[in-house]
Specification:
The chain has helices at 3-16, 22-37, 39-48, 56-67, 71-87, 104-107, 122-131, 158-165, 181-194, 219-227, and strands at residues 89-90, 97-98, 115-119, 137-140, 172-175, 200-203. By secondary structure, it is of the alpha/beta class. The protein has two domains: 3-86, Helicase, Ruva Protein, domain 3 (Orthogonal Bundle); 97-208 and 215-227, 3-Layer(aba) Sandwich (Dna Topoisomerase Vi A Subunit, Chain: A, domain 2). The strands form two sheets. A four-stranded parallel beta sheet has the order 4-3-5-6. Strands 1-2 form a two-stranded antiparallel ribbon. The chain is globular, with a radius of gyration of 22 Å.
Length: 232
């Protein structure tokens, strides 16, 4: 198996176990590395393993990469992390990440105020913006409905969305929650809340990825692609 595959397997095995076991694994890995290469390296490996998708091998590789950097470059990375934590906040309107009270997208008067794209997390806004196609506004729910996990409507930023719709300016709400059970449940719940207001509700299309091969697609993906077909 290649190095990248080993890292993914290690990360996956750590994420599959109970959350209570992860700190113990990180502590054990950090202690072992500390015994071999010093406490500073061990603490760094343990710290990197707290990041999502980072297993022990990836954490060790990152730690050694930092060790090999010039001191100024390593200090710059550390300062960037501190600045991110100290200066970032959620937009008071749409919950996007910003350093101001209101994010740049909500302040932009050139954006289409009649359309709001609803996403689960602020990170989704960054992905959609990179496409350069959507020029409306956004609203991040900060999660998705999951009754089994005890996450209900009151735990999401749904009230803020409904408050924005009361202005009467919005004509369409695009539900861009993830194509998962939780995402579909959230989209259906929001649709039932919004449609009685006389506002159009649409769902993003999904199916076969660009450059993908139908041969390797699963049945649900093919089904979604067929259902979302359009005339040419």
């Amino acid at each position: 198996m290649e190095q990248g595959g080993q890292d993914k397997a290690a990360a996956a095995s750590e994420q599959e176990g109970p959350s209570s076991g992860r700190p113990r694994k990180r502590e054990k890995a950090g202690k072992q590395d500390a015994e071999i290469s010093g406490r500073a390296l061990g603490r760094t490996v343990e710290a990197f393993m707290k990041l999502p998708g980072i297993g022990r091998k990836s954490a060790e590789r990152l730690a050694f990469a930092v060790l090999g950097m010039p001191k100024e470059e390593a200090a710059g990375i550390a300062q960037a992390i501190l600045d991110l934590k100290n200066n970032s906040r959620y937009c008071s309107v749409c919950n996007n990440i910003t350093e101001d009270e209101i994010c740049g997208i909500c302040r932009d008067e050139k954006r289409d105020t009649t359309r709001i794209c609803v996403v689960e997390e602020p990170s989704n806004i960054l992905v959609l913006e990179k496409s350069g196609i959507f020029r409306g506004r956004y609203h991040a729910l900060m999660g998705s409905l999951s009754p089994l996990d005890g996450v209900g409507p009151e735990d999401l930023k749904i009230d803020g969305l409904m408050e924005r719709l009361k202005s009467g300016e919005v004509k369409e709400v695009i539900l861009a929650t993830n194509p998962t059970v939780k995402g579909e449940t959230t989209a259906l719940y929001l649709s039932k809340l919004i449609k009685p207001l006389g506002i159009g509700v649409s769902r993003i299309a999904y199916g076969l990825p660009v450059g993908g091969d139908i041969e390797y697609a699963d049945e649900n993906t093919v089904l979604r692609a067929l259902e979302g077909r359009r005339e040419m």
